[in-house]
């Protein structure tokens, strides 16, 4: 069964498929590792985890890559404040981030390349962009100006500028006509800040060159599925897609997915805004499966307002569902139910996920089913093995721990 998603770039529904003879290429934008990961990050990575789980359960081989941005202005600033080198801070937060993913039962990417390890390839991307004749110098920076693109070739800059959720350094980019899509290619920068030899002297490559260099090297372009939070659409995914169009005439990805924000106080949860709830703090309020239940019970296209009371309510709801299932599977209860209903449950959840990664419908289906079996005597011993197999299939696809 195909996974069909609404592609963020084209607005159309597309099946996520791999090309013959190679695994499905999944590239997910990772964090800038200068502070704790928060539940907004968790929601994004959980949706991509379910996408990967669904594909692998369908027998599709997946090659999953997620970058680690380990040098950037905000990282430099925090490292200086803490009295650390940028590398020391980045390595510490990278370890914590990967531990957070593991604590959420998220399948770790096959590769997590660091930006600092890909500077030579990013430098070559910068040189290739210069050969297009569209790079000019502005002070200590070299900036690329893209050509006009047709509808659905790339993300609309005016719309993304207007809806950008949190103002950050360099965001939004200039709104002057003809300049909204510009992005940095190289900037002069001296030690002890991150600095490497480059085409114009020591400095750093632009952030947007990072994902192009990594995806091209580790997966080949276009990848089959790519995304991150919607704040990455512009300028980051716009820029990396522009590089792919400039070099290859093809998009960066065949399908883009952008699960929506988690809000606190009506604003997007953000490290730079300082309004985050860390994954670790959230897990102090409830276990990983309960947090997954809460964050994925709202459709990925909708924003979710973080409310501790709602999380506790969701955690209680999940625990009732799991307790009902455990009682139903208990071989000592002498139950008489067949495995028919759980087969239907498993197949229904499979269809829900295939149709737009609808975790909200899948979880609602699971909740309704556990409510129905709560008054049952349980599954018959003769059908228990089949029932456990079907529940295991649900766990594999959703990442929930149900037994």
Question: What attributes characterize this protein structure?
Answer:
single chain, Rossmann fold, Four Helix Bundle (Hemerythrin (Met), subunit A), four-stranded parallel β-sheet, four-stranded antiparallel β-sheet, elongated
The portion of residues forming beta strands comes to 5-15%
Q: Return Rg in Å.
A: 23 Å
Helix segment tally: 13
CATH fold description of the largest domain: Rossmann fold
CATH level 4 superfamily of the largest domain: HUPs
Order of helices and strands: EEEHEHHHEEHEEHEHEEEHHEHHHH
- Share of helix among residues? 40-55%
User: Residue ranges: pLDDT <50 for 5 or more in a row?
Assistant: 165-175
Structural class: alpha/beta
Q: What is the CATH class name of the largest domain?
A: Alpha Beta
Strand order of the largest sheet: 4-3-9-10
Taking the alpha carbons of the first and last residues, their distance comes to 26 Å
Q: Any overview of this molecule?
A:
It is a single chain. The chain has 403 residues and is of the alpha/beta class. It has two domains: 3-268, HUPs (Rossmann fold); 308-398, Four Helix Bundle (Hemerythrin (Met), subunit A) (Up-down Bundle), CATH 1.20.120. It has 13 helices and 13 strands. The protein has helices at 39-57, 73-82, 86-103, 119-130, 157-163, 208-218, 233-248, 279-283, 288-296, 308-329, 340-354, 359-373, 381-398, and strands at 3-6, 13-16, 24-28, 62-66, 135-138, 141-144, 183-188, 203-205, 225-227, 256-257, 262-264, 267-268, 304-305. The strands form four sheets. A four-stranded parallel β-sheet has the order 4-3-9-10, with helices on one face. It has a four-stranded antiparallel β-sheet with strand order 5-6-7-8. The protein is elongated.
